[in-house]
Amino acid sequence: MTVAAHPATTPADPAGPACMAGPGGLAELYAEIQQFYARQMRLLDDGEAEAWAETFAEDGVFGANAHPEPFTGRAAIAAGARRATDDFAARGIRRRHWLGMLSLEPKDEHTVFVRSYAQVIETPRAGQPVLRASTGCADLLVRRDGRWLVLDRRIHRDDLG
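The line above is the sequence of SnoaL-like domain-containing protein; the predicted structure tokens follow.
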């Protein structure tokens, strides 16, 4: 008896087994992407705006419903991140980004669509932590020169339309 494959896992589907045929498959990819985000968010939270921007492709885009226009290009992304990190530092606010619930959709061996939730926690100097934002994040990651980069990030804050 032959059992038909589920359409979502047929080899023609980029999220199916053909895309996971490399060493370690999806589990290894998932761990790799989690490490990418752990490093990336730590850079931002430590105020290393330029190093954080280096995790975006040179032609990367950072869009958010909290900003009127997306930042396009690594230089613009770095400048926006630098302004924000300097502002929080001047006000004595420590920010932490917590990403979780990652869902990966490999498109090919060099491209992965990732959806996640992110919470932004702010702690004022000598104050109590406050959950400042709850967001959904949609990233298109590309592997270039052996490392993952964000090609396109879209942030949707839950409290905004």
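Note on the example: The chain has one domain: 23-157. The beta strands are 56-64, 71-72, 93-108, 111-124, 130-144, 147-157.
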